[in-house]
Structure formats: structure tokens, C-alpha cells
Write a structure and sequence with these properties.
It holds the Pfam family Transferase. With 437 residues, the protein is of the alpha+beta class. The protein has helices at 3-8, 39-42, 66-77, 127-130, 174-188, 228-234, 246-257, 267-282, 326-331, 334-347, 350-363, 425-434, and strands spanning 15-17, 21-23, 34-36, 47-54, 87-90, 96-99, 105-112, 149-156, 161-168, 237-244, 290-298, 317-325, 372-377, 395-398, 406-411, 417-424. Strands 1, 2, 4, 7, 8, 9 and 14 form a seven-stranded mixed beta sheet that branches. It has a six-stranded mixed beta sheet with strand order 10-16-15-13-11-12. Strands 3-6-5 form a three-stranded antiparallel beta sheet, with no helix packed on it.
Length: 437
Amino acid sequence: MDSSSVEDSPRYFKITKSEPVLVHVEIKSPFPEYYYLSNLDQNITSIMQTVFCFKPDGDKKSTEGVGLVIREALAKVLVYFYPLAGNLTLGSDEKLVVKCTNRGVPFVEAVVDYDIDVLGNVTCLDSAMLSKLVHTDSAARDMFEIPLMTAQVTRFKCGGFVMGMTMNHCMADGISAMEFVNSWSEIARGLSPSIVPAIDRSVLKARQPPRITRVHNEFLEIKDISNISAKYQESEMVYKAFSFDQEKLMRLKKLIMEDGTIKNCSTFVALTALLWRARTKALKMKPDQQLKLLFAVDGRSRLVNPPLPKGYFGNGIVLACSVSNAGDLVNKPLSYAVHLVQNAIKMVDDEFIRSAIDYLEVKKEKPSLSGTFLITTWTRLAFNTTDFGWGEPTQSGCVTLPEKEVALFLAGGGNGTTVLTGLPVNAMKSFQELMQI
């Protein structure tokens, strides 16, 4: 299919966009010139891009004015989340901080001359299509010029609409981002935010003096003896969504426990072990290739001294880590990988998180992704509660994955889980077979 026919097909619809309007904090209340970012925020500067799809409902009001409602609510919610209207800069210590300039959040309105059903299932990660539904600043040359947040409201012929949002990950993890969106939608409905954000991040400052008391293999530099990076560079990347309903998940957990070494296993752990092993096989790694599995663990319930306040706005996640060689991972029972994942989760307590923050203070390192598989999960995020006044979204999802080494877990239908990941095209064929349960 040539490019012109792709553009003319419904799935690759034409979209008409307005020029961006800068939305400023509505009340010019005094705020600090600079806003502190913790060590957990420093290394996560990828741009999260999400879409929320709202189908028309015959009993609901017209969506003709939806853009104005959402834009005005954004100005109001920024009073609570004012750093999002600023921009990144370097502080005197060479760390990232937000300069609270109130330069504003770019806001775009758009229209599409198709019904919203043209989008299909947005979890299939059709980035060529979904990228039209979010606004990116093509003129920005680096992360200091890229807006910390943008918003786009796209109306479809049927009356449905999509709210597309980008946000720099250094400003929020998934939980914080969804609390922001839900506060925004509450204000759009004339309510006050049900969770008032706690935006002071100094609670996650490094200890003085810093104390590295735990082993932090998440920063381990791994030698790529299997030419993994070359396989990614030499072949086209293919992204697939894999659905696991309750029946499949039960079969997977039964398989894991059949050798008697595992007594119970969560869905997250089971799928993580399965993916790590399948990816290792599909990429044909050498038996003595050292491998690292990283996955995000929410520290909110694990931080106790002091605890994170309710509504903490920022990154409250740390990376847990498992290490194995490829031979053991591929040849040993799946329960072996499960043990590794479970043990990594157990290690994440208050002291581990404080030690990780102190490690970053001293070493100033970014976790290496060589020989690494990174898993993040959005299964517990309240995507479906966002109601701007036209009902809850019928579906939501991400536009792209931030790195080629990443897999993302999303909530599936009927308490199932959908897994999104990408691999070089040849490896994906094998991976798909290995994912059959």
C-alpha cells in the first residue's frame, strides 16, 4: 500500500488541527521560581502519550463545546499542578528542576470527518494513527524546549471525541498522572478535586550523608555478547498486543506451580516471568549472556519513614531488578524465573527505596538498558473513571512505548490483562508462538 492510499484509508484519516493555544494557570497565585524534582524523577524524561476515547451517547449533551470545557478546566486544575505550566532547566547542582515560568500548556482542538469507530482497538498500538491524536511540538530541539505537558481534543463526525495528552515522565508516574487527569475531569464537571495533590517532593530528598545500604543491580552495566542491539538495529520493529483472559492466566499459573516449588503467584509475576523467558528465547541469546529484568514497583505503600502523603504528585516508583544468565532462564522450569521476580519484589521496602535515592545522589547514574528487559504496568490505573461531563471513556491507551526494551501491561476485559511489546520482526514470529498458553 503506497503512502497516498494509506492516507486516504479510513484508518489513516486526515485530521484538521487548530493552532496551539497556551493555557496558563488561571489564578496568578505566587509560586516558587524553581520547583524541586527528586532523584526518582531525574532519569525518567521520556514523554508519556495517552489517549482517552469517548463515544457519543444519545442521552448525553452535544460535544460541540467539549474543547472549551476541557480547556477552561485545564486552566483551573493547573492552579493545583502549577509546575506543569513551566519548563525544565538545570539547577546549580546540574540536576533537573522546573522553572515555574507559567509559559502555559499547549492546547489543540481538532476534527476528523469519520466516526470514532475508525480507531478500532487503541491498545493495538497503531502509532501512525494514534500519534495524530496528541500534540507534539515539532520545533522543540531538546527536553528543555519540549513542553512538560500538552493536550489535544479531537472531535469525530459521530459526536465522539478523544482527549490526547502528553506529559514528561519526570513530572509524574502513572498513578500521579491519572490523579491529575481525574482532578481535571472533576473540575470540568464543576466539582473540586477529590484528591488534593501533595506537590512538595522534598520528602524524597537523599539522606545527609547519603547511605547506600542495599545492592542495586538495576544500575548494573551488562556486556552484550549476543549482539542484541544489532538485532534491533538491523531489523524492523514490530509491536503486538497479547491478551490473557482469566482462563489463560489460570493455565499459566498451573504450569508455573506444577513442579511444586511455587505455592502461589500473582498475575503480574506470572506474566513477567513468561515474557522474560519468551523474549530471551526469541532473541536467541547465548547461554552465558547475563540478563537483567527491571520492573517498576510503586513505593507509596512501602515508604514509612516518612510515608509519602496521599496525593503525592511525582514519581513514587523504583526499579526492582532480577539478574540471570540466558541459559538458566531458558532451560530451567518457568518457576525459576518466578522465584527471581518474587524475590526482587520482596527486596523493595522503605530502606531499599531510600538506598536507591542515595545511590542516585552519589553515583548520578542512569539504569543501563543493555541486556535488559523493562516491564511497567498500568493495570491498576483508573483510566476508566475520567469523566469530563460526557461519560467515562470507552477505551484508553498509550500511543507509543518509550523504549524498544519495554513491555507494558494494561487492564484487559473481564479482569484479564493485555501485554504490549515490540521486537525485531524475525524474533516476533518466534515470540508469538512462545506466548501461546
